[in-house]
Design a protein that fits this description.
Order of helices and strands: HHHEHHEEEH
Distance between the termini: 38 Å
Largest sheet: 2 strands, parallel
Structural class: mainly alpha
Number of strands: 4
Number of helices: 6
Shape: globular
Strand content: 5-15%
Length: 147
């Protein structure tokens, strides 16, 4: 089961290269946001919109941290940012894989945590030019983006 999940994540990472290009399916006006529902039929909260709007701006080849996201949007905690990104209905338009832990550890992906469980996230970031050590830490700090 774990191997199948890892294969799926790697497949998904390669099949959906993330981009910050404008996506017509990403609601930017209040009227569309008010009526938007996820596949599960849930509304997106004001906090989640703020997280997605900020994360959407992280450039390819750069990363930010969960803490930097909540600092930039002026609310929440790193954990609440992670929760919003775990439920991100807009991937790859909102490139949630570009958010890492504040100690520069790879952090989480699809609700999983740690380098061994986030091989797809590391793979995606490596393809964008972001390097990690073998134990899952950011290799070069000059790729940190704070908005």
């Amino acid at each position: 089961m774990i191997i199948a999940l890892q294969v799926y994540l790697v497949f998904r990472a390669e099949a959906y290269p993330c981009s910050t290009d404008m996506n017509p399916d990403y609601p930017t006006d209040q009227a569309r946001r008010a009526t938007f529902r996820t596949k599960e039929g849930k509304k997106v909260t004001v906090f989640q919109w703020a997280v997605y709007d900020f994360t959407r701006r992280v450039p390819r080849g750069r990363v930010t941290t969960y803490k930097d996201v909540c600092t930039a949007i002026g609310q929440g905690s790193p954990r609440s940012v992670g929760s919003a990104l775990r439920n991100n209905p807009f991937a790859p338009t909102v490139p949630c894989h570009r958010v890492i832990a504040s100690n520069y550890y790879v952090g989480g992906f699809f609700g999983e945590w740690g380098a061994s469980r986030c091989s797809a996230k590391i793979h995606m970031l490596t393809n964008e030019g972001v390097e990690f050590t073998n134990d899952g830490y950011l290799a070069k700090k000059n790729v940190i983006w704070r908005g």
